Amino acid sequence: MKKLIKRIVSKIVNKANAIFINMVAKATEMFIRSRVLLCSQRGEGFVDTAIKILMAVVIGALVLGGLYALFGETVLPTLKQRIVDMFNYGN
Predict the structure, then answer these.
(1) Domain spans in the chain, listed from the N-terminal domain onward
(2) Can you tell me the distance from the alpha carbon of 51 to that of 47, in angstroms, rounded to the nearest whole number?
(3) Are the beta carbons of 66 and 72 closer than 8 angstroms?
């Protein structure tokens, strides 16, 4: 009977040790991961993102301004003249 109790207690202690070792290993791994993430120098800063947004806005405004100038001075007067000629409003 004593051998049976010793075996059962031994199994419980071995299982508890295994669980404890597994928990310590996971905690150590989590600590190392968090340290690596906190110490890393990767990523974008707010200034980089602000400069990219500002560049996109300025380039977009230039493109829209160019298209407006092109359509206002070149395409629309020609289009208006073609419509007048097509329907012969002048005669």
Answers:
(1) 1-42, 44-91
(2) 6
(3) no
Element (H, E) at 87: helix 76-87
Question: Quick check: 52 and 58 in contact, CB under 8 A?
Answer: no
Question: Which two tokens mark 58?
Answer: 């300025």
Which amino acid type is present at position 14?
N
Rounded Cα distance, 31 and 27, in Å = 6
Can you give 35-51 as a three-state secondary structure string? Answer: HHHHHCCCCCCHHHHHH
| pTM across the whole model | 0.41
Encoded tokens for 88:
């012969």
State pLDDT tens for residues 42-78: 766 788 888 999 999 999 999 999 888 887 777 777 7
Distance CA 69, CA 64 (A): 9
Q: What b-and-e string marks burial along 33-45, b requiring 16 or more CB atoms within 10 Å of the CB?
A: eeeeeeeeeeeee
